[in-house]
Structure formats: C-alpha cells, structure tokens
Design goal:
The complex is a heterodimer of chains A (116) and B (111).
Chain A lengths: L3 E4 L2 E4 L4 E8 L5 E7 L6 E7 L2 E5 L6 E7 L2 E7 L7 E8 L11 E2 L3 E5 L1
Parallel strand pairs in A: 2-11
Antiparallel strand pairs in A: 1-3, 3-8, 4-5, 4-9, 5-6, 7-8, 9-10, 9-11
Chain B lengths: L3 E3 L3 E5 L4 E7 L6 E7 L6 E7 L4 E3 L3 E6 L4 E6 L8 E9 L3 E4 L3 E6 L1
Parallel strand pairs in B: 2-11
Antiparallel strand pairs in B: 1-3, 3-8, 4-5, 4-9, 6-7, 7-8, 9-10, 9-11
Classes of the chains: A mainly beta (116), B mainly beta (111).
Chain lengths: 116, 111
C-alpha cells in the first residue's frame, strides 16, 4: 500500500466553525507533513511531524492546530478560519529512517477547503 | 524566502517530441532535489530525484540534469505523451524534511 489518504475531499466551513482534516498512511512512514496550496501556486509547508513529534512549524497561525495521534494518522484541526485560508490542504509522508527527513515524500490527493 | 524557481510558467509541445523543463536554485549548499508532477485534482507525484554528488540521473523516459556550477537543474521527458500534461515542480529537500517548491511549469501536450 503506497497510498496516502485524506478526508474529506471537499470541505466548506464558516468562519466560526470548528472542523478537522484527516490524513492516513499505512506505509510505515515515520514522518508526516501538512502543506497548503493556493490555486496556481506551489505547495507551501506548514508542519512536519517526525516520530509523532512536531519538528517544524512554519510560523502557521494558531487557528491551525496539527495533531499526530500515532505514526499512521495526522490531523489538522481548524478553528476561526478566514476566507483567505481557502486552499487545497495536502498531507504527505516519508520514511524518515534517520529522523532527518531527507527522503521521498508521498502526497495524498488533498482536501479542498472553502471558508465562507 | 524561496530558494528555487522555474524559468517558464507554461510549455507546449507536440506529442512525441522531447520536453525540457528548467529550474534554478540560489543556495549553493543545496544537495537534494526532486521533481514532482501534479495533475489536476491530485497531489504532487514523485518523478525523479538527484543528489549533489551526481550530475545526471535517468528514469523511465525522464532524465534530470544538475549543473552545480550555475545552480541549475532540468527535467527532460522523452517522447512526450498526452498523459504527461500536468504542472511540474522542482523542489529542494532540505534537512528535516522541509520541501521548498519552485513556482511550477504547466506542460501541455498537443496531439
């Protein structure tokens, strides 16, 4: 199984809502990532988890809260988002055998988020 | 700030021709680069990677060239097919898993 799955595929939420994005992989990877991608732009890294510990936070606003319950799952909790947060949110994973993150990242299909 | 960039935002080629997509980077200490393909509605898909101890790496129909002197890399796709139509990103994989993407080149293949 070389797949990273993400749910939901699409999400529409109001600015006062609380929602969560979910990501799962069963490749035994120990690093997982969240990226944000606006239309016609490249993905931008948000968070990196290595061995279930947060290792990189790219100065992401606190209205985005990541969680890594175990090595296969990654969540992104959303609260009080703004319309400019509307984007494609991509999850990725990699083996990270040495805890250095320097290996191939496998991406999921993303969750298309619209904030109204 | 961004450390990688692409020369052209769009590239149109005839089916069967070879495609060349270019990318420049600014950090001479960069040592690991990856090319990704992103089709509409999908996440980026790994194509090929190259480390700084190599100048060239070949895969199936794809070749990546790395010129460290001028800090430039390119992706060559042989016998381009309609299924190759997508946005192609070069990316620098920094220590810790930080992947820095270039702006992307949209490849269109004309039948």
């Amino acid at each position: 199984d070389t797949e990273v799955t993400q749910t939901p595929k699409h999400l529409v939420m109001g600015m006062t809502n609380k929602k969560s994005l979910k990501c799962e992989q069963h490749m035994g990877h120990r690093a997982m990532y969240w990226y944000k991608q606006k239309a016609k732009k490249p993905p931008e890294l948000m968070f990196v988890y290595s061995y279930e510990k947060l290792s990189i936070n790219e100065s992401v606003p606190s209205r985005f809260s990541p969680e890594c319950p175990n090595s296969s799952l990654l969540n992104l909790h959303l609260h009080a988002l703004q319309p400019e947060d509307s984007a494609l949110y991509l999850c990725a994973s990699s083996q990270d055998l040495k805890g250095q993150g320097v290996d191939e990242q496998y991406f999921g299909p993303g969750t298309r988020l619209t904030v109204t | 700030g961004e450390s990688v960039g692409l020369h052209l935002p769009t590239l149109s080629v005839q089916e069967g021709d070879n495609s060349i997509i270019n990318c420049a980077y600014s950090n001479s200490a960069s040592d690991y680069f990856i090319w990704y393909k992103q089709e509409s509605g999908k996440g980026p898909q790994f194509i090929i990677d190259i480390r700084s101890n190599m100048d060239k790496r070949q895969g199936q129909r794809v070749t990546v060239l790395l010129n460290k002197t001028v800090k430039h890399l390119s992706l060559q796709i042989a016998a381009t097919q309609p299924g190759d139509s997508a946005v192609y990103f070069c990316a620098e994989n920094q220590y810790g898993g930080k992947l820095i993407f270039g702006q992307g080149t949209e490849l269109s293949v004309k039948p």
